[in-house]
TrEMBL record:
Listed transmembrane segments: 6-22
Keywords noted in UniProt: Coiled coil, Membrane, Transmembrane, Transmembrane helix
Source taxonomy: Bacteria, Bacillati, Bacillota, Bacilli, Bacillales
Name recorded for this polypeptide: Uncharacterized protein
Keyword Transmembrane helix applies: yes
Coiled coil: 36-116
Length: 194
């Protein structure tokens, strides 16, 4: 009741009620007639102004509602997107944790295997002197075995033939030829380091 138009309406209603209650006389009718007409006119003018204000408020409320609905829709779409990302992230975390557990298990198995190999190796006596030289000698000659075993392949390779050409001539895959050449190079490097 802090708005002035409420007071104006109340005052107008009081005046109308008072005018109806007052006894009517012929002389007073002429006085009251224009006064009631003025009051009615004022009330109509006041009602029209109230109606305009109400329409303005309704328009403003409708605009505010539209803006609120648009913001709500934006926020709802963002929430949906974040929920989907959260679910996807949760799935990725679960997948990564499973992969991590599998890797840990594999690492534990490898560690156990290494320990068992070391324990088994410790159980056997180590060769000494001539026996150790006899064990190392076949390993050194093993590198020569690759070149000897594939002497035709290495003769073509030394002549500068391509891996494709060698593979066709030898009836092998190109990958096999490349692998044999790489193994021979690694063995030569190991023999040079010794």
């Amino acid at each position: 009741m802090n708005q002035p138009w409420v007071y104006i309406v109340l005052i107008g209603l009081i005046i109308i009620v008072y005018a109806k209650i007052m006894p009517r006389t012929n002389g007073s009718k002429e006085l009251q007639g224009p006064t009631i007409g003025e009051i009615e006119e004022t009330m109509e003018h006041f009602a029209a102004e109230l109606e305009e204000q109400n329409e303005a408020l309704i328009r403003q409320l409708a605009e505010t509602t539209r803006e609120y609905d648009a913001q709500s829709a934006k926020l709802a779409s963002k929430i949906d997107m974040l929920e989907k990302q959260s679910v996807h992230t949760g799935q990725e975390i679960a997948r990564l944790s499973l992969a991590n557990e599998e890797l840990q298990k594999k690492l534990e198995r490898i560690t156990e295997w290494q320990q068992s190999v070391l324990q088994n190796a410790a159980a056997f006596p180590q060769p000494s002197g001539e026996a150790a030289a006899a064990v190392e000698e076949p390993q050194a000659s093993h590198g020569m075995n690759i070149k000897k075993r594939y002497s035709e392949l290495f003769s073509m390779y030394d002549q500068g033939k391509s891996s494709d050409y060698i593979a066709k001539k030898m009836g092998m895959n190109k990958g096999e030829v490349s692998l044999i050449i790489q193994l021979a190079k690694q063995e030569e490097q190991l023999n040079v380091q010794k």
